[in-house]
Amino acid sequence: MRLTRFSDIGLRVLIYLARSGERPAPVTVAEIASQFDIPVNHLVKVVGQLARCGWIQATRGRNGGLRLHVAPASLKIGAVLRQLEGEAELADCSGQACRLSPDCILRGALADGLRAFYAAMDRYTLADITAGSTGEKIVRMQRDFMKQLA
Amino acid sequence: MRLTRFSDIGLRVLIYLARSGERPAPVTVAEIASQFDIPVNHLVKVVGQLARCGWIQATRGRNGGLRLHVAPASLKIGAVLRQLEGEAELADCSGQACRLSPDCILRGALADGLRAFYAAMDRYTLADITAGSTGEKIVRMQRDFMKQLA
User: What keywords sit in the KW lines (chains A, B) (predicted)?
Assistant: First the structure.
């Protein structure tokens, strides 16, 4: 079982931005793409979705860039994943993919399991997952990146 | 988020066999492959794993075939998925894939979420998911298949 690449990238963007509030220069798409080795075209789509959800703000222009637009302690990871994962089911239950559909009890069971997963992820906020060692690592990554540019 | 194709096929095999106890002819790999439109080479690998787990028995020869080797009410779906999904994590956290590893708090959070998912799936047994409409559908599928052969 794997998160979609879309969610995976989305979480990294949020984690990265959660610890960028104190630096002078804004974070750019190019910076995140370079730091996590993510293709820019993928990243642009994810950033667009995060902005539509109201979690980040993207401004254009010379001093433009990406900023977190919510308090990290108020953003639940389950809520983020529900949005980024979308409506996809855990198994391909479409009529063509499986003859058991629409009579399948497993389908409802898997939906229960998914709800339990999201509920467990709701016990973590963006602040929780960017504390301690993760936060320090992010700050270090950002410092090293800016040194390279200087 | 998607189950692996391996697990998806594994669940279908177990569901199919759970309702085949009353028919005279044993179920074959070819039958399941045909019923669910699964490539035989994929199916053989999954069947091998289900047999190694002790959940099904595969016998060779003229009257050989596949049979369930556990009571459906004793087989928890969470346990099945833990085995079939294996050790894979929800995100690709390997050192090469993500620079946050090994400092990443999200990694542990996702592992918590996965445990919650499996615990929720443990509330369902193979008997539960092959009852009612699913069971009736399977029995109908098997009856129709045998009619075609006759």
Answer: DNA-binding
Name the CA dihedral angle for A100, A105, A109, A115, rounded to a multiple of 10 degrees: 80
Report pLDDT digits (tens) over B103-114.
788 989 999 999
When pLDDT is averaged across residues B48-69 and rounded to a whole number, the result is: 92
Chain B neighbors of A78, CB-CB under 8 A: 113
Total beta-carbon pairs less than 8 A apart between chain A and chain B? 150
| Residue appearing with tokens 């993207």 | A58
How far A135 CA sits from the closest chain B CA (Å)? 9
Lowest mean pLDDT among A45-59, A86-100, A102-116, B38-52: A86-100
pTM of the complete model: 0.91
ipTM: 0.90
DSSP E strand boundaries for chain B:
56-59, 65-68
Optimal mutation site among A31, A34, A117, A126, interface B, most CBs of chain B within 10 A: A117
- Give residue-wise pLDDT tens across range B109-135: 999 999 999 999 999 999 999 999 889
Q: Which of A110, A126, A139, A140 to mutate to test the interface with B (most CBs of B within 10 A)?
A: A110
Nearest 5°: the CA angle A114, A120, A121 is 90
The answer to whether residues B65 and B58 touch, using CB atoms and an 8 Å cutoff, is yes
CA-to-CA distance for A88 and B85, rounded, in angstroms?
18
pLDDT of residue B95: 66
- In angstroms, the CA A26 to CA A101 distance is 49
The yes or no reply on domain B5-88+125-149 and CATH 1.10.10.10 is yes
Pair type for strands A65-68 and B56-59: unpaired
Residue in B with minimal Cα distance to A81: B1
| CB atoms B15 and A132 under 8 Å | no
User: Under a CB-based contact definition with an 8 Å cutoff, are residues B25 and B146 in contact?
Assistant: yes
Q: Do B105 and A1 touch (CB under 8 A)?
A: no
